[in-house]
Design goal:
By secondary structure, the chain is mostly helical. The chain is built from nine helices and two strands; from the N terminus they run ααββααααααα. The chain has a two-stranded antiparallel ribbon.
């Protein structure tokens, strides 16, 4: 199927094509029009997917900020931390955990795609049993999300106590330097004044929203992904019928031109 006569980056208009190319446009069959519409749809979908990926990538960052805002105390290597150091540690932990979850999901999806490309039987199975395939992927994700952290915890417990104590001492030194970083006094006073005038009920709502901010961002990303898929189908239909209509207009214009010549 050849659609090289028309670049997907060009407008489907007579002005931008010479007569020979217009004749090629008019002579395109239905399959070639569909192929061209598919190419144009892919270009639009890539832009949508970039926005969706930005949402997914922002989840760990939102989680880190959310945990940092809500944190009062944190523990690391058997040391209890407070202040900015505690916020930093818990922020890194939360962001890292969400990055692990999303990375695991992405790895499972990529592995499934690779198996489909390399094995016709796997590809046929996925097409014939989509719900079972989805269930298998969810089960694999749950297993990884549960057992990998447990494995990491077991490895941590195998570390010698003196090594943990040494690491804890280093954490205390770093935390001491972090906690010395203070916001300017005018900002602290401004924040305290605002906090004193906000009702407690509003504060509680704000804390709840902050706590669920990563989940809200993730749900937004999932919905955006679903919307992008639906939008791709609509784009294909609109582009295809638009190309077909433009082809008809060019053909009609050429017929009128030939009639005038006669």
């Amino acid at each position: 199927m050849q659609v090289s006569a028309i670049s997907s980056n060009q407008g489907f208009t007579a002005r931008q094509h010479n007569r020979e190319n217009i004749d090629r446009v008019i002579s395109l069959d239905d399959n070639q029009l569909r192929a061209l519409a598919y190419i144009k749809t892919l270009e639009k979908n890539r832009k949508r997917q970039k926005n969706v990926n930005r949402l997914y990538n922002s989840v760990p960052i939102v989680a880190a900020l959310s945990a940092g805002i809500l944190t009062q105390k944190a523990g690391l290597f058997s040391k209890e931390l407070t202040g900015l150091a505690a916020k930093t540690v818990n922020g890194i932990k939360a962001g890292g955990y969400w990055a692990f979850l999303l990375g695991t999901a992405a790895a499972i999806g990529a592995g499934s795609q690779a198996l489909s490309k390399n094995s016709e039987s796997v590809k046929d199975f996925k097409q014939n049993h989509p719900l079972l395939t989805l269930g298998t992927q969810i089960a694999a994700f749950c297993a990884a999300a549960i057992y990998l952290p447990k494995g990491a915890a077991k490895l941590y417990n195998m570390i010698k106590p003196e090594c943990i104590a040494k690491a804890g001492k280093g954490v205390e030194n770093v935390a001491e330097h972090i906690n010395k970083l203070k916001a300017p006094q005018f900002m602290s006073n401004w924040g305290a004044n605002i906090s004193n005038h906000i009702p407690e009920s509003i504060k509680n709502i704000g804390k709840t929203i902050t706590a669920y901010a990563p989940d809200i961002t993730l749900v937004t990303a999932v919905l955006a992904s679903l919307k992008a898929n639906v939008g791709s189908a609509q784009d294909f239909n609109n582009t295809y019928f638009g190309l077909k209509e433009r082809q008809h207009q060019l053909a009609q214009a050429r017929l009128n031109e030939l009639k005038n010549i006669d």
